[in-house]
Amino acid sequence: MRSAARHKRMKLKSEINVVPYIDVMLVLLIIFMVTAPMLNANVDVNLPQANAKSMQDKKNPVIVSVDADGHLYLTLENAKKEPVDAETMKAKVGAFVKANPDISVLVAGDREGKYDGVYQVLAELQQAGVAKVGLMSQPPQAGTGNARQ
């Protein structure tokens, strides 16, 4: 009788104890939450330079220029470069692109200017209904190194 009671008490359990796995998962979660913000801090960006081919377009593009101070200038086809504000630029370019959907729209940002000026122009052009926008650049001059210092 004792052996039958002993077998009843010592019956094997077929369960997995998941408590240690949960502990490990929580420790890893805390480690990743602490280290993830540190991965993006103080990253130096060294943008590459490339010799891109120039665009061959049948029509003259619309050019929106942003100078170093953030002032906007607009050049429509063969017209002269004229200073504009953001709302005027958005209205004129939007109307011009609706009339000529195949025309290229380019943004020329000054090298010494802030990225914010170019970014604001891109956002304004998107609101004006321009689907494709290109960024203008000049090819590197012969005899100058491509290395940044």
UniProtKB/TrEMBL annotation:
The chain crosses the membrane at residues 21-39. Part of the Tol-Pal system, which plays a role in outer membrane invagination during cell division and is important for maintaining outer membrane integrity. It is a single-pass membrane protein. Keywords: Cell cycle, Cell division, Cell inner membrane, Cell membrane, Membrane, Transmembrane, Transmembrane helix. The keyword Chaperone does not apply. The Tol-Pal system is composed of five core proteins: the inner membrane proteins TolA, TolQ and TolR, the periplasmic protein TolB and the outer membrane protein Pal. They form a network linking the inner and outer membranes and the peptidoglycan layer. This is Tol-Pal system protein TolR.
